[in-house]
Structure formats: structure tokens, C-alpha cells
Protein: Diguanylate cyclase
Organism: Thauera aromatica K172
Amino acid sequence: LELEAQLRRALARGDLVLHYQPICEAAGGRVVGVEALLRCRDDGGRLMPPGEFIPLAEETGLIMVLGEWALLTACRQACRWQQAGWTLRVAVNLSTRQFRDAQLAERVRQCLAGSGLPAALLKLEITESSVMEDAERAAQTLAELKALGVAISVDDFGTGYSSLAYLRRFPIDQLKIDRSFVSEVTHHPDSASIVRGIIDLAHSLRLKTVAEGVETEEEQIFLREAGCDLVQGYLHARPMEAEALERWLATRE
Ligand code: G
Ligand code: G
Ligand code: MN
Ligand code: NA
């Protein structure tokens, strides 16, 4: 079956799934949030990772409905967790196409209202290229999102072509340090310097930092000592279904 048809069918049939990966404080390890990561069940029951379908969904525009589904589903789930006593901020990825949508803030507002999730418990992950595409428009969109009370994180920071000027112009809360740097901090001094540099830059601009792809205890120690605020990666947990996450949280209480 053609991928696009398969995606449309998955949406209609409920074969889209969100997995959630914990985000923990670098010092102390407390779980403060999760990142919602989209998967699509194919006909054989296999879960397709987003790399296999997001690019096409972006091209065809299908990302608009997939993204809307992910946003609402993540908000509802985080609201249920809050009611169950787990206060977790949920991070949802936005594609460039979604970020370009003039109705984005209104859609986000509706997802918050429809789910009952407090805006402070939602974080939107955007890419540098989304912000760089049209700075005027990005400034407007970010201001509208901030007015709602949601947090904004720049994903894969340091990997794109971008100007650092946007960091002072735009109301951003966090930088997510790309996995490609994190995975080298204990073996490559240059990567270690880049990561320290990002953390110091972020803090001097009053931004928090999240390191992604933390896999080893050594990386975690490096990040903690460098002052990184939050960590995410296989060292703590892989992305997992909501129920598995609940069991995982219960074992940590
Ligand atoms: O595990 P991982 O393979 O989940 O994710 C791969 C990439 O897919 C990541 O860069 C992530 O940002 C992107 N991604 C995951 N879920 C979503 C989503 O709901 N929307 C968008 N636009 N991208 C997503
Ligand atoms: O949004 P983004 O590109 O940053 O999505 C995070 C991606 O990183 C997802 O594909 C997720 O499954 C993956 N990921 C999360 N933690 C780790 C990790 O510790 N190691 C590796 N290799 N990948 C990870
Ligand atoms: Mn992300
Ligand atoms: Na990322």
C-alpha cells in the first residue's frame, strides 16, 4: 500500500501511537516531563518510526492532521497523568509546516481547552529552520504561543544553518542539545567544548538546556558538571507507550 494511503488509513483506524520518553533533571534525576514521539502501526503491526513517514507527511501536507492528532492526544494524556498525581510537562514536536500555519496558536489554544491541560504543562519543540524561514512571522507566532503560556524549545540545537541573533529576538525557553554532540562528549574534546559552550550561552540568555540522547553514566556526569539542566536518553528510558511509562514512573516512586 502506498505510504500516503497507509497514513490516512492509520489516522482513521486509530493506528497512530504516541510514545513518551522521560525528561529528567540532570542533578537528582527527578522526572519533570516527557517528549511525545509519533509512531504509525503498519499492516503487519510493526511500529514505523517517524523518520519513515514524517518527510512524506510534510510533503503532502498530511502532517497538519497528524500533528494536530499528536498535539491533542499528548495534551489529553498529560492531563490524565496530572489527575493521577504525575505532574509532567509534555513536549510535542512541531514540523516546519505546522509552525508556518497562521492558525497555529489558535489550534494550540483549542487543544489546551479541549483537553483541560494547563498551558504551563505543554512545551512545543520547534526546529531552528522553522524559526529561520521567516523571522517576522516566527516572531509573531512565538509571541502568540507565549501569550498562551506554553514553553518553547529549540530542537536539535546547533545542527542547522542559523543565526544566533534569533535567540535574543525570540521568546524561547529552552535549547535542546543535539544527540550528535552529546554522544561524543566523553570522547571528543571539541564536542565537549561545543556542549559546554551551548550550556553557557543558554544560561547567559536565561534559557534552560536539555541534552538529548544521553546513553551513558559518563555522559550524564559530564552534563551535570557542565550545568546542563535536563537530560533525556536511553540511560534513563526509551520512548514507551503511556501504560509502560506509568509502570516505569511507579517503580521510581
Ligand atoms: O524516535 P524518534 O525516531 O521518535 O523521532 C525521530 C524524529 O521524528 C525526531 O526528530 C522527532 O522530532 C520527529 N517526530 C517525532 N514525533 C513527531 C511528531 O509528532 N511531529 C513531528 N513533526 N515530528 C515528530
Ligand atoms: O525530536 P528528535 O529528533 O530530537 O527526537 C528524538 C529522537 O531521539 C527520537 O528518535 C528518539 O527515539 C531518539 N532517542 C532518544 N534517546 C536516545 C538515545 O539515548 N540514543 C539514541 N540513539 N536515540 C535516542
Ligand atoms: Mn524533539
Ligand atoms: Na531532537
The chain has twelve helices and nine strands. The mean pLDDT is 95.
